Amino acid sequence: MAQFINSRESIVTEAIDGLVRTSGGRLARLDGYPHVRVVIRADWQRDRVALVSGGGSGHEPSHAGFVGRGLLTAAVCGDVFASPSVDAVLAGILAVTGEAGCLLIVKNYTGDRLNFGLAAERARALGRRVAMVIVDDDIALPDLPQARGLAGTLFVHKIAGAAAEAGQGLDAVAALAGRVIAGLRSIGMSLDTCTVPGSPKEDRIPPGKAELGLGIHGEPGVDQVGFSGARDAIARVAEKLAATMDDAPQVLLMNNLGGTSALEMAVLTHELTRSALAGRISHIVGPAAMMTSLDMQGFSLSVLPATAEFLAGLETSVPVAAWPGVTTVGALSVLPMPENTAPPAAPASADPVARQLIVTACETLLAAAPDLNALDAKSGDGDTGSTLAGAARALLDGLDGLPLADPAALCGAISQTLSQSMGGSSGVLLAIFFSAAAESASEGVPAALRAGLARMQEVGGARPGDRTMIDALAPALDALDAGLAAAAAAARDGADRTAGMDRARSGRAAYVGAAQLAGHVDPGAEAVARLFEALAGR
């Protein structure tokens, strides 16, 4: 799989330099490349307890992205998914530790425990005061004697960081971090594995399955479970978390494991507010990518009791973009629609012929959706069929309320339905088409539809030859006076001609090269052709 990297060997050092250069002077790094990769606060005066964390890279923005006032003082970065060396950790400790001492925040992995632990011993031998806490928030394997450290580590960073910034001593900060760790619970789920730079992607999760209880280093989850959507995913994770929690209000950290879109994360958050956990969650951090596993398409949930002590630390402001802040979870706020957003609806009326035409047209578009999506994938975003099918379903659902016996009112009602149910430019253009047709309905159906086409071209700017639906619609409407069969033949001829057009001048296909367009019929034109063919009984 292609990645935006230069080499596996240089990826971490180059990423760190990119972060430091764009930090606005907040961050610096030690001059220890390539073996020592430590990011520190550029403004650090060693006058408070220092917080040092880190581990393998690949979890960005953790850990270097959380270096800043009120959070980490330094982050020690290893290779991708590999603990940093003892020398690197020791360099980080010595660079930031003053008389107040240093707290090491370490995730519970063998390499991290050993390297950070030995570095702490060496630092103590050099006269530094160093304490260490181990984060073990993973609940996927309840019987495991040493649970893994996951995204709940960020709660420790933030709360301990606030205490250190406020001037609390090392013993107090370490004890507070210990209380946070004792209250932490985390679990994750993913639909796909991650891509380790320079290595082939492992393909171990079959379609229809998700991994539950996975770590953050690409290791397999505890179990592969059936996957049927966001609601089911949240339900499974919530069930595991709920079994380990009491009824006290909780803060939840909604973490993107790296490859889940913001849109998906928002849906997962919505489902969380309807899950078995909903009544127990008073505050939320995220959703955001905070402790990732490269590009893994997954998420993790971490919970912590919402005590006054913990909330005080979480709510302090920090100048670190990677920390999304904590907010309360409230009721869904819904405001009334403004008046006059829709024209008055004409009364419903019956007309068997008009009804059958609409039913035929809608059923045709529904059946054609997969083919149209496949065509659109050649030149667009693959949703033409789905968009038209959505409009068809909306028209069928509202069929009994349409003014079928009044052509002008019917065109207006169709325009209104399309504007509400179709997304993108196609929905607006077809709404304009039927709105203009309504104004000319007294001139007869062919003339009214041609008026609609003229207005659609005026607003949209497309013309015949531009490789759009107009290449089929314009000739069809020109031939409509001769009957539906003639219109269908003209539409088919116009649609087929688009396959020979190697350049689109309108729509998303205008951004696509000739090689991708050649030999493929425009999906909008194909939809028009199939529509007229169905209406003509072909």
From TrEMBL:
InterPro entries: DhaK_dom (IPR004006), DhaL_dom (IPR004007), DhaL_dom_sf (IPR036117), Dihydroxyacetone_Kinase (IPR050861). Pfam families: Dak1 (PF02733), Dak2 (PF02734). GO terms for biological process: glycerol catabolic process. Keywords: ATP-binding, Kinase, Nucleotide-binding, Transferase. Residues 7-323 form the DhaK domain. Coiled coil: none annotated. Residues 352-537 form the DhaL domain. The keyword Transmembrane does not apply. The keyword Metal-binding does not apply. It comes from the Bacteria. One of its GO terms (cellular component) is cytosol. One of its GO terms (molecular function) is glycerone kinase activity. This is Dihydroxyacetone kinase.
